[in-house]
Amino acid sequence: MLHVDSVTAGYGAISVLKAISLRVAEGEIVTLIGGNGAGKTTTLNVICGVVPVRSGKVVFGGRSITGQSPNAVVRLGMAHSPEGRKIFPRMTVLENLEMGAFTRNDKAGITSDLERSFALFPILGERKHQLGGTLSGGEQQMLAVARALMSRPKLLLLDEPSLGLAPLIVARIFEVVKELNRGGVTVLLVEQNARTALRLAHRGYVIETGEITMEGQASALLADERVQKAYLGE
Questions:
Q1: 157 contacts 78 by C-beta, under 8 angstroms
Q2: What whole-number distance in Å separates Cα of residue 21 and Cα of residue 117?
Q3: Among the listed residues 181, 225, 179, the one whose alpha carbon sits nearest the alpha carbon of residue 206
Q4: Angle at the Cα of 185 from the Cα atoms of 59 and 71, rounded to 5 degrees
Q5: Residue 219, Cβ neighbours under 10 Å: how many?
Q6: Contacts (Cβ under 8 Å, ≥6 apart) of 89
Q7: pLDDT tens for residues 145-184?
Q8: In the chain, at which residue ranges do the beta strands (DSSP E only) sit?
Q9: pLDDT digit string, tens, across residues 46-102
Q10: What CATH architecture applies to the domain 2-83+152-231?
Q11: What is the DSSP-derived secondary structure letter of residue 43?
Q12: Tell me, what's the pLDDT at 84?
């Protein structure tokens, strides 16, 4: 479904990604782990068109999306729940979710997906008329994930969904990710909690200073001594 092929990218004079390659097959959960500043968020931003590719290419669904705008990428079936949530704080929960469906005009389908969002995260239904900026951090993260789902993506990019959240909320978010994957949504997950990410994922990649240094089945990476020492605190 997704193939990142020898991509380099960065910001201004700063080079962040150094010819990285990774792939995500349809139906998989793939995780990208690494330390702070390793290039995880930049990788997702390149894939969804926020950060331009300097060299290499990104292929999604068999077609190159290199150089495509984020708007165009969403229309092709990809959605991004970014690091730091980035909800619209002065819009209500309902308005935030409706913004997630900006590429659609099927009113009945949108209404159905709103109800699905409230079923996945009941607190959002209870607070649908509340301003997004007044929600707790955990509620905002739920809203960010639900907003991304409103475009009915084939591929969901999740960037640090557990960052700074209470364990109970983290558990619920990852339960939803499992449920979505069982329902046919493919997931590329960036997550600072490497242990949780590798237990959830089918496969994983390790990125260090902008380079992919390890890849394999998630269970194998979880058992690898180098991964344990560097990212699992063992």
A1: yes
A2: 33
A3: 225
A4: 50
A5: 14
A6: 131, 132, 133
A7: 999 999 999 999 999 988 888 888 888 889 999 999 999 9
A8: 2-11, 14-24, 29-33, 55-60, 63-64, 78-81, 155-159, 186-190, 203-208, 211-217
A9: 999 999 999 999 999 999 999 999 999 999 999 999 887 899 999 999 999 999 999
A10: 3-Layer(aba) Sandwich (3.40)
A11: H
A12: 78
pLDDT band at 231 (very low <50, low <70, confident <90, very high): confident
Task: State the residue for tokens 């009915």.
Answer: 152
Among the listed residues 82, 174, 41, the one whose alpha carbon sits nearest the alpha carbon of residue 120 = 174
CB 57 within 8 A of CB 64: yes
Confidence bin at 234 (pLDDT 50/70/90): low
Going 51 to 180 to 168 to 226, the CA torsion angle's sign is negative
Residue of 56, 104, 99 lying closest to 77 (CA atoms)? 104
Q: Please report where in the chains the tokens 């990104």 appear, as a residue.
A: 58
Query: Which pair of structure tokens corresponds to residue 3?
Result: 């193939």
Alpha-carbon gap, residue 7 to 196, rounded angstroms? 27
Domain boundaries in the chain?
2-83+152-231
The 10 Å Cβ neighbour count of residue 99 is 14
- pLDDT tens across 91-102, in order? 999 999 999 999
